TrEMBL record:
Residues 137-236 bind DNA. It comes from the Bacteria. Residues 137-236 form the OmpR/PhoB-type domain. The modification 4-aspartylphosphate is found at D53. Keywords: DNA-binding, Phosphoprotein, Transcription, Transcription regulation, Two-component regulatory system. It comes from Paenibacillus solisilvae. Pfam families: Response_reg, Trans_reg_C. This is Response regulator transcription factor.
Length: 236
């Protein structure tokens, strides 16, 4: 079955350009010109990935992203004319999986889409394999934190902690080898499944958001530690 993608952009020319390139790749395309229409489509269609513009009238892309993340882990590629580092960081911390600046090369957008869908596929395959293993082999316990790889769930003293797929995978990676220091390059290549490139702040942004959530939900307890100039680790 063809993957179903949703393009959300109030500029019909940009939406049509993206649609042409993605149709050539065999994807089934839905389009929305505003945030409310996008949320309605997501509610009623099995969307595999969302390409989401930030600057839209009414409900903007950041608000749409937050609404999606309340109930879904659908991959989100955010696109925007805003090219500042803080704009990208804001988008990623809102829950987007990737961020692309306008104007962009349509072939790069296609490559980003394929990468996100490929990562989702690998996660699905890993989950299927884990369903065949004894429970103790895919559940980690760090202090009072329980991390279940099969269900992608995290809880602290039986209270659930809501994480995005990338945040969960970063946490599981660190928790699977307590005491080991992982560099940003290690984390990116092991979690994103792509080659690390210079000036890539994706790990920093997602790590910051992950730590913020854990500290809040764990009553101020600090689980992830920074080894300055080296990377990050979790102590057993």
């Amino acid at each position: 079955m063809n993957r179903q993608l949703l393009i959300v952009d109030d500029d019909p020319k940009i939406a049509q350009l993206i649609e042409i390139y993605l149709l050539n790749e065999g994807y089934f395309i839905h389009k929305a010109s505003d945030g409310l229409q996008a949320l309605e489509i997501i509610e009623n269609q099995p969307i595999d990935l969302v390409i989401l513009d930030i600057m839209m009238p009414g409900l903007d892309g950041l608000s749409v992203c937050l609404r999606i993340r309340e109930t879904r882990t659908t991959p989100i590629l955010m696109i925007s004319a805003k090219d500042g580092d803080m704009d990208k960081i804001t988008g990623l911390m809102t829950g987007a999986d990737d961020y692309l600046v306008k104007p962009f090369n349509p072939l790069e957008l296609v490559a980003r889409v394929k990468s996100l869908l490929r990562r989702t596929y690998y996660q699905s395959q890993a989950k299927t394999q884990m369903q065949q293993q004894p429970a103790q082999e895919h559940i980690l316990h760090i202090q009072s934190l329980q991390i279940d790889k099969m269900t992608h769930s995290v809880s602290f003293e039986a209270r659930p902690i809501k994480l995005t797929p990338l945040e969960f995978n970063i946490l599981y990676l660190l928790a699977s080898q307590p005491g080991r220091v992982f560099s940003s390059e290690d984390i990116f290549e092991l979690v994103w499944k792509e080659k690390y490139y210079e000036s890539n702040n994706s790990v920093t942004v997602h790590m910051s958001r992950l730590r913020e959530k854990l500290i809040k939900e764990m009553d101020g307890e600090k689980l992830i530690h920074t080894v300055w100039g080296v990377g990050y680790k979790i102590e057993a």
